[in-house]
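Title: Prediction job returns without error message
Component: structure pipeline
Severity: low
Priority: P3
Assignee: unassigned

Description:
Job completed but the reporter wants confirmation the result is attached to the right record. Sequence as submitted:
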Amino acid sequence: MDVLPRLAVQWLHVTAGVLWIGGGFYTILVQLPALLAAPPAARGAVMASLVPRQLNYILRVAEITIVTGLLNLFVSGRGQELTRLDTRWSWAILAGILLAVGIYAATRATVVRWAYRMRRWACLARASGALAISSSPWAR
């Protein structure tokens, strides 16, 4: 019966990782070119509603990936190997933890600030009514 929790955590970890990385690639390779092909006047309104949702999705999936990855260490019984760092496996897992947390922290530090600025600009544009979407820095 110990196998079932381990498999469930591993499945959640791999699925969340695929959704995290896949969501990022989808954003860069599909959504961004489609938005750049749209007329500038339409981009601002779409970006104002799309970016917060996309960002929330990517951050939540990243958090699930990191938490289930750490949980996977202890469910599999290999958590103690990280304290010794005498095997290639322990170094690989440590590198994976550092990379995942680093990418997550960098995303939180840079992309989140950019998204909140865009949301604030969109709220100002809606409130004034006279501000043209095409004059925004995101409409270029």
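Comment from assignee: result matches the submitted record. The first helix runs from residue 3 to 37.
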